[in-house]
Amino acid sequence: MTVGILVVSHSAAIASGTVELARQMAADVPLVAAGGTDDGGIGTSFDAITAGIDELASADAVVVLCDLGSAYLTTDTALDFLDDDLRARVHVSDAPVVEGTVAAAVAAQTGGDVQAVLAAADTAAASEADAGGASRPDQTAGPVPVTGTATGPRVAASTTVELVNETGLHARPAAEFVKTAARFDAAVHVNGVDAKSLLGIMALALPKGATLTIEATGDDAQDAVDALDALVRSGFGEH
After folding, report:
1. Between helices 114-122 and 97-109, what is the axis angle to 10°?
2. Cβ atoms within 10 A of the Cβ of 88, count?
3. 132/209 Cα distance (integer angstroms)
4. Could you say which DSSP state residue 232 is in?
C-alpha cells in the first residue's frame, strides 16, 4: 500500500520545511506541502489543500496533518468537495504537525498501511512514556523476558554496541534504525525502548559514545539484532 502525506500549515515555510525534513528519512514516500494563503500570507488555502490532495490521489491512501484549528476547518471544507472514492481514502490526523509527519513518513517508508501510518503519527501526541518509555542515556535496560509459545520457546537475542557516528542517534540515524528494525517480525527493544518507534528512539537522545543494548524476541530475533548491530557499527554511513 502506498500512503501519501499532505502537510497543511498556516505558514508556507513550516509546511515546506516539514516536508523537507520528512523526506530526509522517507525518500520514497509521496509528501506534499500546502502552506500559507494563495497570496503568500499567513493562513490556509482551500485551493492549495485541494491541489495537494489531487497530487496525492494516485496513492492508495492520503494522510493529512494540520498545524492549527482553522487548518482543520479548511481541510474539512476541501474534503466536502472531493468525489466519494477519493474522500474515502483521505484520513486527517490530529497529531502534532512536525513530529507527526516525521513519524508517519517513516511508517509509510517501512511499508505500513494507512492504519499503521496514522498510529505512528499518534505517538507524537503521547507523553514520553507512552511514546516508548524513553530512558536517559545513562539508564540501563532490564533483560527482555523469554516466554514460551504453543509451538515452543521464543528465540531471544541481544548485543551491546557503542554509537560511533559523530551525531549520535539523531533524526536520520534514528529513522534508519527504525526502518531496519521494522523489517523483522521480532519484537526489538533498544535501551528498553521499542526499536520500531521513531519518537521513542529519538527521545533517547543518545550521543556519540553512548551504549546501545539491543534485545529481541521472536523467530528472527538473532537476524534483527545482527542487522541493527551492523548498522550501528557502520556509523549509519556518516563516516
Report:
1. 140
2. 10
3. 22
4. H
Name the residue type at position 169: L
Q: Percent of the chain scored above 70 by pLDDT?
A: 87
Contact 125, 94 (CB under 8 A): yes
Q: Please report, rounded to a whole number, the percentage of residues in the chain having pLDDT higher than 90.
A: 67
Chain length of the chain: 239
- How far is it, in rounded angstroms, from Cα 41 to Cα 44? 9
Q: For residue 10, indicate whether it is catalytic.
A: yes
Question: What does pTM read for this prediction?
Answer: 0.72
Catalytic one of 10, 91, 170, 189:
10
pLDDT confidence of residue 167: 85
In DSSP terms, 7 is beta-bridged to: 33, 65
Q: Which has more confidence, 138 or 237?
A: 237
> What's 160's DSSP letter?
E
